[in-house]
Amino acid sequence: MRREMTPRVEIDLRKISHNARVLKKWYEEKGIQITGVVKGVSASIEIAKALIDSGITTLADTKISRIQKMKSSQLNATYLLLRTPALSEIDEVVRFADISMNTELEVIRALSKEAVKQNKVHSIILMVEMGDLREGIMPEDVPAFIEEVLKLPGIQIVGLATNFACFGGVIPTEQKMCEFSALAMKVQKQFSLIFPYISGGNSANYNWLKHTKDVGVINHLRLGESIFLGRETVNGTPIPGLYQDAFCLVAEIIESKYKPSVPFGEQRKNAFGEKVFFQDRGMMQRAIVGIGRQDVFVSGLTPLLPVEILGSSSDHIILDTKNIHLKPGDEIKFSLDYGALISAMTSPYVYKKYLHISEKDRCSKRRTKRITNISSGDTVNYLISFL
Fold it and tell me: Domain 249-386: which topology?
């Protein structure tokens, strides 16, 4: 019997749909609409469709090429570019993104010019800096910024947004959320605007929303990790009622040998410029799986067997298998954190296996094609969907 390809990510669409539906219902009970952030799953068409079928009608990604991919698959959704556009991609942003996040007047002026050229009105959400120090307009500068944007043709401001727990680790406390809500109220009143998107954050906002008695004017959040991994992102705590195992990385044992626990010979730095120190545990049963740092954020993996990850190179992860006998060809499963998920889903060398795919999609024209990567000479398998 032919073996399944490894390494692979097994993706349970039924569990993703469950998480999306539960979160959508719970957030809507507090007046919050949610956007599905699909950057962590490389804008998988199968996963995007599962979110849309679960009632999520807006999808967000940071890559305009992936928004173009989703749009060309004719999925019925509103598409949000989740970061400030680069000046080099203005044409594509206006052409494919329904909404883009923005923080720079120069960029918005370029969007305005291109929107007029394409005979469109491009919608923008202005990002406000609330302390995490990733991107955003300083709060005191927002009114003057809006005043300038309102002068531009082809541009419509549809909201304000802020971000938490991404770069600086600043969390959405009650005080922070009240400050952001008050700012949104102030500028809407000042400019006689009504924002359909007052987007207060992301999956890190779970605890705030659970405990707050007043969401203010905040009516929108952007969720990725909590849908896909069933966790809030401030403490990494599982959210009750959600699945944490919708994704599983499966790797194959390619070597299993009894070896020393400490390298022997004169040591210098490893291939990644690191000076590695080893604990002397005597002889041990060690195994290697055929995946490494090139394709996955190894520190974000947790083996689902009682074995230990000793380290990794670009294409190998070395395990202490303890008392478990593993032989070449055996498979071992790992759970993934968000860093591991986003890297494995992005890699073309990690196969994607979808579980519980709908019968309608199963019957659509799909085939696996072997393609030689012209730039590297590597031959890899791609699953190509014809929708």
Answer: Lyase, Ornithine Decarboxylase; Chain A, domain 1 (2.40.37)
The pLDDT profile of the chain, 387 residues, written as one tens digit per residue, is: 678 999 999 999 999 999 999 999 999 999 999 999 999 999 999 999 999 999 999 999 999 999 999 999 999 999 999 999 999 999 999 999 999 999 999 999 999 999 999 999 999 999 999 999 999 999 999 999 999 999 999 999 999 999 999 999 999 999 999 999 999 999 999 999 999 999 999 999 999 999 999 999 999 999 999 999 999 999 999 999 999 999 999 999 999 999 998 888 888 888 788 888 888 889 999 999 999 999 999 999 999 999 999 999 999 999 999 989 999 999 999 999 999 999 999 999 999 999 998 766 666 545 434 433 333 333 333 333 322
pTM (predicted TM-score): 0.91
CA distance 120 to 140: 31
Kindly write down the DSSP assignment for every residue of 279-337, as one continuous string.
Answer: ----EEEEEEES--TTTS-GGGEEESSS-EEEEE-SS-EEEE-TT----TT-EEEEEE-
Alpha helices in the chain (DSSP H): 13-28, 45-53, 64-72, 90-96, 105-117, 142-149, 174-191, 206-211, 225-229, 338-346, 359-362
Q: What share of the chain is helix, strand, coil (3-state, %, to 5)?
A: 30, 30, 40
Range 59-76 burial, b when 16+ CB lie within 10 A, else e: bbbbbbebbbbbbeeebe
User: Which tokens sit at 29?
Assistant: 């009970």
Please tell me whether the peptide bond between 7 and the residue prior to it is cis, using omega within 30 degrees of 0: yes
Two tokens, residue 156? 């419509």
Name the nearest CA neighbour of 101 among 39, 193, 189. Answer: 39
HSE-CB of 60 using CA atoms within 13 angstroms: 21
Boundaries of every domain in the chain: 31-229, 249-386
What number does CATH give the domain 31-229? 3.20.20.10
- Contact yes or no for 193/160 (Cβ under 8 A): no
**Catalytic annotation, pick one of 15, 24, 39, 176:** 39
39 is catalytic: yes
